[in-house]
Every structure is written in structure tokens, then in C-alpha cells.
Amino acid sequence: MRNLMDDISLLEGYYMPAEFEPHEGCIMIWPVRPGSWPYGGRAAQKAFCEVACIIAESEQVYLLADRAHLEEARAAIEKAVTVKSKISGAEGETTEDVRNNITVLEIESDDAWARDVGPTFVVNRQGDRIGINWTFNAWGGNVDGLYPHWDKDDKVASRFCKRLGEKEFDAHPFVLEGGSIHSDGEGTILTTEACLLSRGRNPDWSRTQIEEMLCAVLGAEKIVWLPCGIYNDETNEHVDNICAFTAPAEVVLAWTDDPEDPQYAMSRACLEALERQRDAKGRSFIVHKLPVPEKPVLIREEDLKGYEFEEGEDMREAGERLAASYVNFYIANGSVVVPQFGDENDKAAVKILGKLFPDRSIRPVMARDILLGGGNIHCITQQIPSKKVKRGK
Amino acid sequence: MRNLMDDISLLEGYYMPAEFEPHEGCIMIWPVRPGSWPYGGRAAQKAFCEVACIIAESEQVYLLADRAHLEEARAAIEKAVTVKSKISGAEGETTEDVRNNITVLEIESDDAWARDVGPTFVVNRQGDRIGINWTFNAWGGNVDGLYPHWDKDDKVASRFCKRLGEKEFDAHPFVLEGGSIHSDGEGTILTTEACLLSRGRNPDWSRTQIEEMLCAVLGAEKIVWLPCGIYNDETNEHVDNICAFTAPAEVVLAWTDDPEDPQYAMSRACLEALERQRDAKGRSFIVHKLPVPEKPVLIREEDLKGYEFEEGEDMREAGERLAASYVNFYIANGSVVVPQFGDENDKAAVKILGKLFPDRSIRPVMARDILLGGGNIHCITQQIPSKKVKRGK
Lengths: 393, 393
Fold this sequence. Notes:
The structure is a homodimer.
Chain A: E1 23-29, H1 42-56, E2 60-65, H2 70-88, H3 95-101, E3 102-106, H4 114-117, E4 120-123, E5 129-135, H5 141-144, H6 151-164, E6 167-175, E7 182-183, E8 188-192, H7 193-196, H8 207-218, E9 222-226, E10 243-247, E11 250-255, H9 263-276, E12 286-291, H10 301-304, E13 330-331, E14 335-340, H11 346-356, E15 361-366, H12 368-371, E16 382-385
Parallel strand pairs in A: 1-2, 2-3, 5-6, 8-9, 11-12, 14-15
Antiparallel strand pairs in A: 1-16, 4-5, 7-8, 10-11, 13-14
């Protein structure tokens, strides 16, 4: 088997920028999988279009779809752009800009999680960019993966890089999803033990080897481990649902003060881990608590009827709690796109993020229909950082 | 550095019997550490003596103490035996039997956790027995260990084996505490990810390497992983506080139906893990839920005044929740010694265990004073299995 570490010197000088650094664009995937998106994905597709249009106000959006759904995706985007222009009126960005900023590309996939199947881009100071192509195994492969076949998903990163003429680094056989890491752009990677040490990913890699590999591939110096993520998160608790950088050494953490909530102990354990650790530059973390929804978001009987599961696919149950979290936002160049659940805490989340991102508009999107697929706004997006030319920094 | 796996063939044919198989005896250690046992350890010592006397009714007890406390330990045991004889009257076992079954040995240690610093004994079918001497680093070494020096503790297993003429296998540099594993005696080892994959133990070992090593040293074929343990358990959540074998393919699991309890989600996650996995013989687990105390057991102001912490030692706070669990019992040849907390669920725990161990007497011991040190009855005991001669099995 190939020894990944042998090739890693190719990445010398590259690092993963923080999401809050400038983007060239964003990758998204058109949602159609019957076992993820109830009732043919209609409601989810509407929410995806809304997210895409907001992001396209300030960066490129590449929306991937397979051949059978190319026209459906294009038509839906066109409709969303038109509706949007009617609602927003003259809000600064023109309808034409948004329309021009969205490109629908024919690339097939098994589902619609661009964060997890798309490339993780690293850049260097000479203005070069490389897409990291991790192994994707549907969040746990044969151990506890969520669907039985993931070969198309596993090829998305490479196909996207080829299609756009991006350089590619093949990180196989190492298994990783983009949602399981956050970078502060200054040498620190945030992740969870529950996911990265899980049995379904890299059981033959030690914690130290995983740290060394992440540091080498992502140009980092320090891995900061949280023990766990959001209760009942079927990704084995990705970090991007519980904690995110808002600035270097500054994070938001999904939180509840309600001891009735099973999230209570989990968030507390993460806070303790953050308090105990330092970032790559030796700084303590400033932790901003972001409430989880006041009322758990549950799968309803009527949702359940809309899914069509294939054999071997993880199925949902009525009453099952979804891993709803406001932390699962996307930081675009001009905005922060924040999930909303029709919950009492929706506004509080928007308000907190407004203070933390004073230079961006906070854009709430009703996201229950995205959450029904098992993730949220951050999970369906993957930023393409701008190429950088060395300055003083 | 020594390659542990090179020597492992020495253990060919050996395996770790279940705790419910016959014992020759039990190791305990006299509690005196000022940072663990408030007020000079008086209350804890009384509880330790009670545990020792119950176990000594049906097996040997080796109580270790350093030179300065040898006489104190002997006198306390003598007193306990006398008091016991007066209370119990003629209960079958004689006072003399109990007295003769307790041997106080001069072996020094840093604290009193025989489960974690004592040898883990394996046996073969030819009647041989070997004590495994793991590395002990105070539950996490320089990462999150609980005290700054543990060199005496780390030598306890070897010194005990030498003193009793037991064969010894040196498992250094692998770090493990006895409390982090349970064996069913039929090829299955139960453990927790929170502990065995923790950063303070063996960060250079992969999950697969850890599994292979445990299987080789303990003569097992299957490692069954639980994600976590008891809330706020400072051992990084040892399995012996949350789940224990009561028979092959049958376990008790610490449980609460109260969503207000931070233990709620943790126990549920463990149940799901048990339901998903099979033992070495391919059997599903029968899981008996054992309630946790109805009311959390907390450190009180008056407890706090009794501790004397040294520099670098983990300190307690008033109001801190202790990791109280009825699962932390010891299975002796004739009895099951069960912790009690003065809680409403004390009796329920005794009743459930009574049904699961119909051939043993269930012996409740008020254990809050043991818990104040950070563990419980299982943590302060380590069984020495009987030597076996091959029969039909």
C-alpha cells in the first residue's frame, strides 16, 4: 500500500486558510438522494437554492449535479434567482451578479455533502492552491457508515479539481471528511476525538500519527481535540456542528444550560477541553456560547413517509432527534449564512453571530429541510480559498 | 525502545479469567494519601477494612502498606475483625478464618488503587498464572494525570509478584489500568474509547494496535468498545464504573431514565454500542440496567477541608459531582461487595444484583468515603484468579 507520508513533502509551504479568510468560491451539490431528502428533495432543494443565492452575492458558487439532474438544478437556481430579485429589490448586488456567480457543473455523487466529499483546499504564499482529496467512506465505511456505496462521493474531490484545473493532492488511504476539521489559518486545527478516533475511519493510525498527518497535509502545528460533538450526530460528531472559529483563538461553541438536555454534558466536556488547551501560537481560546435550539428538532411521522431508503442505508425513525445546531453556519465573503429552525433561540443565534462578524451580514435561512438530510449549511458547502500572494504576514 | 510485541509469545495459551470465576485472593492497598483521603483517611480506612473483611470471608486478602503504615493497617484490620465478629455473631464463617485470610504486606505505593496499579493476572489450562505489569502513569501522565509522581505505584505490580513468587510479564511501555478492562473469560474484553484512546496513555498506538496488544496479552479475540463511562469520572471514564460482566454475554450498565442527568446521553450511547456489537463467540449482549444514584453525590465543604493536596495534584472543589455508580462492585468467591451512597436507589441496586448473582450473598457497604478518593470498591480491589487445570472446557 502507498505510504502517504512519503509524498507529503509536495505540500511544503501550503496551509489551510480559515473559513473567515477571503474565498474565491464555494462548492455545493444538488440534493436528490431518496434516503436523505424526503419527497424527492423538493423542500431541501429550495433551501439549497436559497443558500446558493446568498453565497453567490459575494463569491462564486459551483453547484454539482449528475447528468439526470443538471437541468433540474439549473432551472431551480434560475427560479430562485428570479424570486430573490423580486423580494430583495435593489439590495446592492444585482440579480445578474448572483446569476453569473452560480455555475452548475456535471459531476455525479452519492449525496449532497460538499463539505465532506469536496476537496479541502490549501494555499501557499506564492499564490498556489492545491485541493486535498481525502478518502471518503460515508462516515464510517463498513463499520458504521450511513450508506452502502460511496464510490461516486469518493471521486468528487478529484473530479472537481480536474474540471476546474486545480492541482490535487491524493491523501488516500487516509479517511477524513471536511466537516471534521476547522482551521484557524494560523497553525491550529480543531477536531473531535469521537470522529477522528472512530473505528470506521483510520483504526490503524495512532492519535500521534493522525496529528502528524493532519499537520503535514494542512500546514498546521497543533491539533486541538474536543472529546465529542452534538448529541445524536450521525457523522460520529463532526466538529463543524459543535464548534467553529470566528477569529484566531476565538470560537463559538454549541451550548445549553439546560441539564435536561443530553447535550449539556457534551458541551461542558468540550468547554473544559478548550479551557485546558492552547492554540498553535500558545493563546487561550475565547469561547462564545451559542445556544442550541430551545426545543429539540425531531423527525416527524410525515417526514418519515417521504424518505426512500435503500438496502444497507441508515434509516430514520419518527421522534428521532436531529443534530440541530446554529454552529453549522457558512462564512461567505460578505455574509454568514446561519441555519434557523423556527425555534425560540433562532434570533439569539443571529444576534450573537452578528456581534462576532461585524463586517458581514448575517443571513438566516430556514434549515429544517436541510437538517432532515442529516447535516446543515456548513455541511452542504465547501469554501475555495482565494489564492494568496505573500505580503508582510 | 523495547518492542513489547516481540515478547508476547511468552503469553501463548494464557487468558484473563472473568471476575466471576474462582479467585485465590484479592489485592488491596491501605489508603493514606492526603490529597485523596480527607482527614488522614480515617473514614476511608474504616470502609476499606469493611470491604477487606467481607472479601476475606471467602478468599485471601493481601493488604499492601508502606513501612510507616504497616502497624496502623494491621491494628485497623484487627479492630475491624473484632467488631465484625461482635456484630455478625455466628454467621457461618468464623472470625478466625477472616483474620487468617488477611495478610498485611509491606509494599509502598503512591495511593490505594489496587485495581489500577496491581497486576492483571492471566492463567493457562496447565495451572500456570502470570501477573501482567502494565505501565501506570496516574491516569494520563503529564497530559491529564491526577498526581505528579507515580513511580511507586508503577512498581506495585512487579513488587507484589516478586513478593508472592508469582510469574510476571512486563508490559511496559504500554500504559493501562486494570479498571479500564473487563474480561468475560471467554475471549471478550470490554473497554471504553474515552479511556483507552485518551491522549495521556498510548497516543502512538493505533486503535487496531491496541486491540491486537490487548488480545495477545489477555488471550482474547474481541475487544468490545463502549464510547464513554460515568460523567465526571476522572480516570477518563474507566469501564469498571459503567459496565461489568455478570456472566458471559451478560452485563450490567449504569443507567438513568432522567434526562436531567448528564449521565443520560452517556449511558444511552453505551447501550447503543452494546446493542450494535457481538462478543468473541458471536453472541449479543443481554444488558441489565443498574440505576445510578437518584441524587448526585457531591463534594461538600466539610469534605474539602480534610484534603491536603500537593503541588501538581488534581484538586477537588465543593459541589463537584463524584462519579458514583453501583457498577463499581467487587465479585468475591462468596459475595458481591456493592457500594451504597445513602441514596434512594441503594436498595434497588442490591436487589438487581441479587437476582444476577443468585449463588453469592450481596453485601452492601457504605462507600461515600471510598468515593471521596475518586473510585469505589472495584477500584480498590484486584482479584487473583485461581490456577486452573485443564478440564473438559
